[in-house]
UniProtKB/TrEMBL annotation:
<protein>
    <submittedName>
        <fullName>C-type cytochrome</fullName>
    </submittedName>
</protein>
<keyword id="KW-0479">Metal-binding</keyword>
<keyword id="KW-0732">Signal</keyword>
<dbReference type="InterPro" id="IPR050597">
    <property type="entry name" value="Cytochrome_c_Oxidase_Subunit"/>
</dbReference>
<keyword id="KW-0679">Respiratory chain</keyword>
<dbReference type="InterPro" id="IPR036909">
    <property type="entry name" value="Cyt_c-like_dom_sf"/>
</dbReference>
<feature type="domain" description="Cytochrome c">
    <location>
        <begin position="42"/>
        <end position="116"/>
    </location>
</feature>
<dbReference type="InterPro" id="IPR009056">
    <property type="entry name" value="Cyt_c-like_dom"/>
</dbReference>
<feature type="signal peptide">
    <location>
        <begin position="1"/>
        <end position="23"/>
    </location>
</feature>
<dbReference type="InterPro" id="IPR008168">
    <property type="entry name" value="Cyt_C_IC"/>
</dbReference>
<keyword id="KW-0249">Electron transport</keyword>
<keyword id="KW-0349">Heme</keyword>
<keyword id="KW-0408">Iron</keyword>
<keyword id="KW-0813">Transport</keyword>
Amino acid sequence: MIATAIHRAALAALCLAAPPATAFSETSDADQRREAILALTPDAEYGAYLSSECTACHAEEGGDIPLIHGQDREALIDALLGYKTGTRSHDVMETIAGRLGDEEIAALAAYFSEVN
Ligand code: HEC
């Protein structure tokens, strides 16, 4: 019991010590991040390059996995940010989106919104 209490206290201290920039769970942070991504000039060629990781699952046709080709750019950004920040949950996509930086999200959204 005491060990558990100490453990909890240590966890709480860790959480408090975390810099605000990592607290993506707060809506305002997610909103700011969304605005920052939208303000970038996306590099669709870089998106095409990165897309090979995605198209293994997101094929252009068939299957149970949603089609992302031709989706609205902002919707793609929102979905990827959602998985990244935890407002959308899906184990695989959370892992994948968690690794993507702003430039990469912008590039992928630009690429997939432009292809059909
Ligand atoms: C291992 C398979 C896999 C890979 C690789 C993968 N995805 Fe996904 N993705 C999924 C699945 C499954 C879903 C549906 C998840 C759900 O139900 O929320 C999904 C959902 C999405 C959605 C939301 C689509 C919608 O209409 O709701 C987007 C956007 C997306 N993925 C983008 C990407 C991008 C960009 C990459 C590459 C960086 C990628 N995915 C790589 C399996 C994958």
